[in-house]
Amino acid sequence: MQKTLYALVELQEIDNRLDELRAERGDLPLIVEELENKYKEKKGLLEEKTQALKTTKVRQKELELLIEEAKAKLAEFEEKLYQVKTNREYDAIMAETDATKTKLEESEDELLNTQETIERLEEEIKQIESELEKVAGELEENKIELDKKLTATAEEENLLQNERDIILKKTDPEIIKTYEIVRQARDGLGIARVENGVCGGCFSHIPPQKIVEVRKMEKIYTCEFCGRILVYVEE
């Protein structure tokens, strides 16, 4: 058990240093992640608006053709009116004329709305492109800064991680699990040294008899107040 407890002490020291290295990077990883998500979101919105603009312009062309056709038909109907010989023919042409005029008005109204939509979409696309360019610049700047920090600590982190992996392979998984749970719940500290009769983690008083047992290092003891694994290590 002594080897296990000493291994936990070493593991805690490794984790402390890894935490320090990660802290040096500050909020950069989170900032980069948020900017990447924002960039993807803006990119997706830009593609959506661009496709909508393309579809709307296609509809604009269709409406312009419909309007031309309707106007051509009205001209034809007007000429036919001079050639009609019966009231029935006259009524038929007037009915077609009225129907065509209705379609023409509807097409012209839709065309007007379509043109307004195109103007709005073009303005929105311009705004999104500007925002996307700004986000891309911020993302690149923060990525460069993060890469610098990662490069500066990469070698040490790899060495520490390798040492950590070795300890994990040699230590009881259940004990490691307990250590990890407590570490996550207690600000990164899963191990606490007994010093001057108190827990080195929460500074709560530890009964003398328990200190004696902890000092023997024959089994796992935890602090009754903070739950950290207690160890007694001579400097």
TrEMBL record:
Alphabetical list of Gene3D superfamilies matching this protein: 1.10.287.1490
Keywords, comma-separated and alphabetical: Coiled coil
C4-type zinc ribbon domain segment(s): 198-230
Xref: InterPro entries: Oxidative_Scav/Glycosyltrans, Zf-RING_7
Keyword NAD: no
Coiled-coil blocks: 32-156
PANTHER family, per the entry: PHOSPHOLIPASE C-BETA-2-RELATED (PTHR39082), SCAVENGER RECEPTOR CLASS A MEMBER 3 (PTHR39082:SF1)
Protein name (record): C4-type zinc ribbon domain-containing protein
Keyword Kinase attributed: no
